[in-house]
Amino acid sequence: MELSELEKIRLKKVFELRAGGIEPYPTRANRTHTSQEAIAAFEAAEKQADPAPVEVTLAGRLRAIRPMGKVVFAHIEDGAGRIQLFFRVNELGEDQLRHFTEYFDLGDFIEAFGVMFRTRTGEVTLHVHRFRMLAKAISPLPAAKDEVVDGQIIRHATLSDPELRYRQRYADLAVNPEVREIFRKRAAIVRALREFLDERGFLEVETPILQPIYGGAAARPFITYHNQLKQQLYLRISFELYLKRLLVGGYERVYEIGRDFRNEGVSFKHNPEFTQLEFYMAYADYLKVMSLTEEMLAYVCDRVLGTRQVTFNGHVIDFNPPWRRISLREALIEAVGIDIAQHPTTESLAEAMRQKGLAVKPNAPRGKLIEGMLGDFVEPNLIQPTFIYDYPRDISPLAKNKPDDPNTVERFEGYVGGMELCNAFTELNDPLEQEKRFLEMGRTYEAEDEDRHPMDEDYLRAMAYGMPPNGGFGMGVDRLVMLLTDRRSIREVILFPHLREREDD
């Protein structure tokens, strides 16, 4: 790679250290305490009548350096936090102090041995007796700058440019501790979801990512090719059809948390690679799954945040059950004044939409017109947790009909913060009806339409062995993390989001 002038200066230091017999990337580190462990050990010793010196060896990245003549103050950061280092010529000698100021830069990893003490300002600090380089940072952390504070020069680093942060997440994490906290919370959210389901008898499983037939959702897949088997394969867009095969096999409650891949547009709430939770529960319907969803998300809030009231995009959102429940029909009557029950055909509904001044997508089936109105006029206003239920049959090929309405299925979507969070069905378990639905989807949608659902003969064969009645659920984990960390872009909660190629100037 091409080096900047500053990087060339730092690289020169690497060569000079090696020429002097010092390895800037040693094989071993000898840390005895994290920053917080060292502080805790010192504070415990302070409470004793005759405390013994607290000797520790710390290691971390240099985040601030303040030379002050015969002494230097510095701060290092490790995985537990920050701590101050104090270097003084009396203990180190002039050569060692000069070695530190000449060869150590912000971003370098340092190991320091010494005795803990408290400064006159009250900060718990390591009085350094020995130190050495653990890793030389050739590239300075982004946006490094000097700042004068109380007459002293403090060197530090920040990074705020979103494009650079996403492209160089490693640098973003290195200089923005609040970003590191997002991903700690993300891990805690996933852990809490697992705990909730495990405690209720669900079995966590893994299903194929490479699939010969994609299904379980309305999305365009990524396509790949297996050279040895000479097969075209798809990256999965859903876990659904494999998880429901397991219900046939005798498991009554299964779930998976993993990656799905959808070859679709990118937005603040869409990424082509995302994390999904799906579970399937024998002898349940969509009403039981609604209640379980409320309970699960309240549990996650309790475990991760200690509160069920969350601030997102300026709104205080209350995850306490019960959520508001409203049928899709009622929601559209409220939002646009159209009663879809009075318009059972595509033509009738399209005409009603035109009379209201709404755009009508050419050749769209009735269900897609309804879905479009939901997305445009209902979803953005659903800030507090809300279940919208009972959906058109023609956009829900895997859901069971309502007993009294052949055009409507038992399906709900959960909305929070103005976006869809989850989707669930009373699952269709009649293999003959399922085959009919697959054939209908093939006829209704054009070959390139993402809602066209391919025929899966093996799934139908599994259903033919007998599938128990069940309720199924899917939720985007990334969107849940957005809600619980108050982030408006999905890129903020994915460590390495996919970005467009950047053209060099």
TrEMBL record:
Mg(2+) 1 binds at E413, E420. Binds 3 Mg(2+) ions per subunit. Keywords: Aminoacyl-tRNA synthetase, ATP-binding, Cytoplasm, Ligase, Magnesium, Metal-binding, Nucleotide-binding, Protein biosynthesis. One of its GO terms (molecular function) is lysine-tRNA ligase activity. This is Lysine--tRNA ligase. It is an enzyme of class 6 (ligase). Its main location: cytoplasm. Belongs to the class-II aminoacyl-tRNA synthetase family. Homodimer. Residues 183-497 form the Aminoacyl-transfer RNA synthetases class-II family profile domain. It is found in: Cytoplasm. HAMAP family: Lys_tRNA_synth_class2. Its EC number is 6.1.1.6. It catalyses: tRNA(Lys) + L-lysine + ATP = L-lysyl-tRNA(Lys) + AMP + diphosphate. GO terms for biological process: lysyl-tRNA aminoacylation. InterPro entries: Aa-tRNA-synt_II, aa-tRNA-synth_II, aa-tRNA-synth_II/BPL/LPL, Lys-tRNA-ligase_II, Lys-tRNA-ligase_II_N, Lys-tRNA-synth_II_C, NA-bd_OB-fold, NA-bd_OB_tRNA. Its cofactor is Mg(2+). Mg(2+) 2 binds at E420. GO terms for cellular component: cytosol.
